[in-house]
Recover the amino acids of this structure.
């Protein structure tokens, strides 16, 4: 499974006006190129009367898929600076569309690069960024006589408690960063005098705002 990474929250949008041109930015988290293309078409359909619907996306654990589209703007003045913002911020699995309604004043090549870069940056800021950190879902099975002590310690620990299962024994399910698993096992073992049965159920990503 992939390592920890940064991406945007699920979706967001923003708007800026530069020299009477309106730049509307739409941002969405995508996990496949098909999702990115569907998102771009969705915005194009919404703004079919716009002068341009420029786009960029970056997808994959190693950024294998990177695409930029100027949609009629001079080559390299829209999609590329948008993609550069995504790369500079270290984002993965992110697609951006900047819709431009021309206001009658030409911006020139440098002006367009700055405008699309700024529109992308502000759209990402409006959407929000999260870091997705890989965690193990750990199961701690104990005798009921240990529950009060262990639950109290767990709730004061940095390990999020998912749920408590009341069965023949009682089990606590907790999220533990993958690189802290050994430390967690040592802690629980010491806490319970070795009376806990500790196992890994699965692994998953938890999201933390950046």
């Amino acid at each position: 499974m992939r390592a920890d990474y940064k991406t945007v929250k699920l979706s967001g949008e923003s708007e800026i006006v530069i020299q009477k041109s309106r730049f509307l930015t739409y941002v969405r988290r995508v996990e496949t190129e098909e999702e990115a293309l569907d998102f771009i078409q969705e915005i194009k359909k919404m703004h079919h009367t716009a002068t341009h619907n420029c786009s960029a996306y970056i997808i994959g654990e190693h950024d294998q898929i990177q695409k930029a589209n100027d949609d009629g703007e001079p080559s390299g003045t829209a999609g590329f600076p948008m993609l550069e913002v995504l790369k500079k911020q270290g984002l993965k699995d992110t697609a951006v569309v900047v819709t431009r309604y021309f206001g009658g004043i030409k911006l020139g090549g440098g002006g367009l690069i700055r405008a699309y870069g700024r529109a992308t940056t502000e759209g990402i800021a409006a959407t929000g960024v999260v870091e997705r950190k890989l965690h193990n879902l750990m199961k701690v099975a104990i005798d009921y006589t240990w529950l009060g002590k262990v639950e109290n310690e767990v709730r004061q620990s940095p390990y999020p408690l998912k749920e408590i299962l009341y069965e023949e024994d009682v089990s606590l399910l907790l999220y533990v960063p993958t690189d802290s698993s050994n430390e967690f096992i040592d802690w629980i073992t010491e806490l319970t005098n070795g009376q806990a049965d500790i196992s890994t159920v699965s692994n998953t990503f938890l999201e933390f705002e950046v």
